[in-house]
Design goal:
about 300 residues, two-stranded antiparallel ribbon, 8 helices, about 30% helix, globular
């Protein structure tokens, strides 16, 4: 992790089936239908994509930056998953709005108002290993044990950190998909100033992931600008790039719970002020992810 010193750092029993997926709330997923659908989604993370890294002197401010350019394959994969998430929320919640967000008690009664996956925080082993630490934390929540150095090799992490995307594809969702079968991860790019619809989409994705397939985490790619919103304990006078494990939510998705690999990291001078586990309003989290995004 470094910042100019960058941190590369029980619900209902409804089962919904579409597009090759089955969501079973409160339990494991059943076998899917629609042969090839899951493979189609997974391919979105592996094709060539625009190189977007966390290095270079021009990255002091993200004001005016658009969402990262997404490959056609990733756009298609994400559209398919977004449709599934909206249908999941609508089916389990019984009365979701047209945009898939639960806005009434009738809708929310089908899903827990708050849920966290098990705590798996690991201190990143050096100051640019937030990506490998995040992926190992996430895999642990899905029952897989990996070391950070092995994960770093698979991600292509170097001293500039872990890329959002590059000519090989999208490293974080690609490595997650390679090493577990519970969830097919895709990337969502966000502009520097996400709008209300993008916030609602994030909340829908968050609640969906934490409640389907027995619960799976999300990965967030933070771009914290000096003087702007920062993760808990991060110095607000620094520009910081940081991957983090999103492990749950509160208030039906309007608050995000996450774990931070800076905690306990001896290579980062301000690590002592960073909690292992924290919560922030989802609106703040989405703002912090602006000009990068999240994988779900």
């Amino acid at each position: 992790m470094r910042g100019r010193q960058r941190v590369a750092l029980a619900t209902t029993g409804v089962v919904w089936l579409t597009a090759g997926w089955v969501f079973a709330t409160g339990g494991a997923a059943l076998a899917g239908a629609g042969p090839g659908s899951a493979a189609l989604i997974r391919r979105g993370a592996t094709g060539p994509a625009a190189p977007i890294t966390d290095s270079g002197p021009a990255l002091m401010s993200k004001a005016g930056l658009q969402a990262p350019v997404m490959s056609a394959a990733m756009r298609a994969a994400n559209a398919q998953k977004q449709a599934m998430a909206r249908a999941f929320i609508a089916t389990v919640g019984l009365a979701a709005g047209a945009d898939g967000k639960c806005v009434t008690k009738t809708c929310r009664r089908g899903l827990p108002k708050a849920r966290d996956l098990r705590p798996t925080q690991r201190a990143q082993v050096n100051n640019y290993y937030c990506g490998p630490a995040t992926v190992t934390e996430m895999l642990a929540q899905m029952g897989k044990s990996f070391g950070q150095r092995k994960t770093a090799r698979e991600l292509g992490t170097d001293k500039n950190g872990t890329n959002w995307s590059d000519r090989r594809g999208y490293p974080v969702p690609a490595v997650l998909n390679k090493n577990q079968a519970r969830n097919d991860y895709v990337a969502v790019g966000l502009p520097w100033s996400p709008n209300g619809a993008q916030l609602r989409t994030y909340e829908t994705d968050l609640v969906t992931d934490v409640n389907h397939q027995g619960g799976v985490p999300l990965a967030g790619d933070a771009y914290e600008v000096a003087g702007g919103p920062h993760l808990v304990g991060h110095p607000v006078n620094q520009t910081i790039f940081h991957w983090l494990d999103i492990r749950g939510y509160r208030k039906s998705g309007t608050t995000t719970d996450y774990e931070d690999s800076v905690h306990g990291a001896s290579s980062i001078g301000w690590a002592a002020g960073v909690p292992a586990y924290s919560s922030l309003p989802s609106a703040t989290i989405v703002d912090i992810f602006g000009a990068r995004g999240y994988d779900w």
